[in-house]
Amino acid sequence: MPQSELAVSIHHLVKSYHRGGQVVPVLSDITLDIAAGEFVALMGPSGSGKSTLLNLIAGIDRPDSGELRVCGTDIMALNEAELADWRAGHVGFIFQFYNLMPVLTAFENVELPLLLTGLGARDRRERVGVALNMVGLSDRVDHYPSELSGGQQQRVAIARAIITDPEILVADEPTGDLDRVSAEDILGLMERMNQELGKTIIMVTHDPHAAQRARLLKHLDKGVLVD
Amino acid sequence: MIRAIPFSYTLRNLWTRRLTTLLTAGGMALVVFVFAAVQMLDTGLRQSLIATGQPDNVHVTRRGAGAEISSIVERAQAAVVETQPEIAIGAGGLGLVSKEVVVLITLPKRDSGVATNVTARGVGTAGFALRPQLRVLEGRAFQPGASEVMIGASIARRFDGAAVGSQLRFGGREWQVVGHFEAKGSAYDSEVWADAEQLQQAFRRNAWSSVVARLVDPALLPALKARLEGDPRLTLDVKSEREFFEEQSKALSNFISYLGLTLSVIFSVGAMIGAAITMYAAVATRTAEIGTLRALGFRRSSILAGFLLEAVLLGLVGGICGVALASLMQFIQISTLNWQSFSELAFSFTLTPRIVATSLLFAVLMGLVGGFLPAVRAARLGIVDALRAA
Ligand SMILES: Nc1ncnc2c1ncn2[C@@H]1O[C@H](COP(=O)(O)OP(=O)(O)OP(=O)(O)O)[C@@H](O)[C@H]1O
Ligand SMILES: [Mg+2]
C-alpha cells in the first residue's frame, strides 16, 4: 500500500513507563499500518496497552523508539508546540467521559478547537451549527454539559472532534460510560463519520458489540499485537 | 495567531466558584484597602499642609540649608532681597518683607514636665500681613521692641507656662505671653512668635534665618528665582511658600508612605498565599480539563496564560473592592498630631486617580505573583497524566 494512503504507519514501536527507578514495559515492538478511511477497533485485556498505543498515535504521548507516521507526518520529529499545532489540525478526540468544559455551552465546547484556526467568528458559528446539526443537537446549542444526558454529551464531543475536519478520530472507550441505547446511537454516529465523511477512526473498546461496528479488529495483549 | 483559551472560560470558572473567588478577592481587597487608605492619608495630609501656603509668598533661605533652623541669610544678602522689583509694597510704602530669625528653645511639657524643643520665630512687622491664615485666638499680638511672645495653639495646649499673662524664660530673659494664635494646621501652629529684633538680640545673632516676602504677582516667581539664585554673591534658595511647606511635610509624608508600603507588603504575603491556594485548588479540580485542552491543541503557554489571567482577574476583583472600600474613607474627617511640628492637623483621606491606578496595579501584581506557581504547575502537567485525572 502506498504511504500516502496510510493514515497510520507504525514500525517497531516501543514504549515503557518509568516508575520510581523501575522500567515498566508497556508496548514492545508494535508494527501496524492503518489505511486512510479505516475504522479500527482495538481490543484487549485491561492493562494491555490499548490506551497507550492510542495516545501515541494521537500525539499526546511519546514513544521510546521505533517509527511513527500519522497522516504522512513523522510526529516523533515534532517539538512540543509543533505537535500541539499538528494535533489541532489532524486529530479529533473522543473520550470515555466526554471531557467537555463544564462552564462552556454545547456551542462553545464545539467551537473550542476552531479558536486554534484563523477562522472568523461568523464562519465559526456557521460550522458549529452544521456540526451540532449533524449530531442531532440543534436544539441544545446553549445547554451546558450538566444539562445534557451522557449520550448527548458524547454527541457534543463528537461534533467537537470533527469540527476542524481532521483526518483521524481517536476514541478511547467512547461507549464505556453509556447505556446500551445511547451506545448504539454513538456507534451509529461514528459509523456515519467514517462512511460519509471518510474519517479514519481508531477506537479502543472492551465491548464486543461496539467492536463489531468497526471494519477491522486488532487485539493487543501484554503490549503485543496478537493477530 | 492568538491561541488563547477563551476569556469566557476563565470568567465563568471564577463565577462558578464564586464563594471561593469572593473570599480570596476579599483578602486581597483588605490589603488594597490598607494600601490605598495610607496613600489617601498621605495625600490628604500633604494637601492640607500645602494649602496653608500663600501662592504669592516666597521664602528665601541659604542654599542647601534644608530647614530654616540651619539657614543663615546675612544682613547684606537680605537687603538685596528686600529691594527686588517683584516684591509687593504694603501699607506705608514699605516692601511686604519679613526678615525672620528662627531658633530652638526648650519648654517643659505640661503632662510629663520633660523639656522639649520648640521652634521660636522672630518676625518683622510685615510678618502678620504675610500670613493671612494667622488668627489671634486669645490676647493680642506682641508689640515691636518688647519682650513679648505669642504662642501657637497646639503649643499652648501642651506646654506649661504658656497661658496668656504668664512668663516664659529663654534666651537669657523673661518673655511676657501676650496672646495665642492659630494658623490652620500649618507648622506655625506649633511655634512661639516674637519680635525679630528682640529675638536676634536675645540670641546674639547678627544674621537672619530666612526672608519671607510677598510678590506683586505669583507669575513673577521664576524671574525672581532666576535672578537671586543666579547671583554668585548671594548663595540663596528661593521657593514659593507652597513648595516650602511641601518640603517641610516631606519627612512626615515619607514616614507614612514607608509605613503604609511596609504594612501592605507584609499583608500582601498572606493575600498572595490565599490566591495561590485558591489557584492550586482550581488547577487540581480542572486537571482533566487542562489535559483535554492540551489534547485539542492548546499549547502549554496558553494554559499558563489562561491561569495567570484567572489569578489576575481575581486580584482585580479584590483591587476594585478594596478601592471602593477605601473611597468611603473620603467621607471621614480626621484630626491628628503633626509629628514634625507637634501641631494638630485637620485633614481628610483624599483619593486621586493615581492612587486608584497604583492600588489596582498592586492588586493585579498580587494576583500575578500568587497565581504564578499554580499556573506553572498547570502548564507543566503531562497530557496523558492530566487526562487520567478524569
Ligand atoms: N503514567 C504511567 N506510569 C506508569 N505506568 C503506566 C502509566 N500509564 C500507564 N501505565 C501502565 O501501562 C500499562 C498499559 O496502560 P493502558 O492504559 O495503556 O492500558 P489499557 O489497555 O488502556 O487498559 P484499560 O483497558 O484498563 O484502559 C498498564 O500496566 C499501566 O499500569
Ligand atoms: Mg485504557
What profile does the largest beta sheet of chain A have?
6 strands, mixed
- Give every kind of bound small molecule, once each: adenosine-5'-triphosphate, magnesium ion
What oligomeric assembly is this protein in?
heterodimer
**Total number of strands of chain A:** 10
Main interface: chain pair and counts: A-B, 27 and 26 residues
Give the H and E element order of chain A: EEEHEEHEHHHEHEHEE
Measured by DSSP, the beta-strand proportion of chain A falls in 25-35%
Assigned CATH class of chain A: Alpha Beta
Can you put this structure into words, describing what you see?
The complex is a heterodimer of chains A (227) and B (390). Chain A is of the alpha/beta class. Chain A has a single domain, classed as Rossmann fold. Chain A is built from 7 helices and 10 strands. Chain A has helices at residues 50-58, 80-90, 106-111, 121-134, 150-162, 180-196, 208-213, and strands spanning 6-19, 22-35, 39-43, 65-70, 73-74, 91-94, 168-172, 200-204, 216-221, 224-225. In chain A, the strands form 2 sheets. A 6-stranded mixed β-sheet of chain A has the order 6-7-8-3-9-10, sandwiched between helices. A 4-stranded antiparallel β-sheet of chain A has the order 2-1-4-5, with helices on one face. In chain A, strand 1 and strand 2 (22-35) form a beta hairpin. In chain B, strands 1, 2, 3, 4, 5, 6, 7, 8, 9 and 10 form a 10-stranded mixed β-sheet that branches. Mean pLDDT of chain B is 88; it is low at 339-344. In chain B, 47% of the residues are buried. With 390 residues, chain B is α+β, with helices and mostly antiparallel strands. Classes of the chains: A alpha/beta (227), B alpha+beta (390). At the A-B interface, helix 2 of A face helix 1, helix 9 and helix 12 of B.
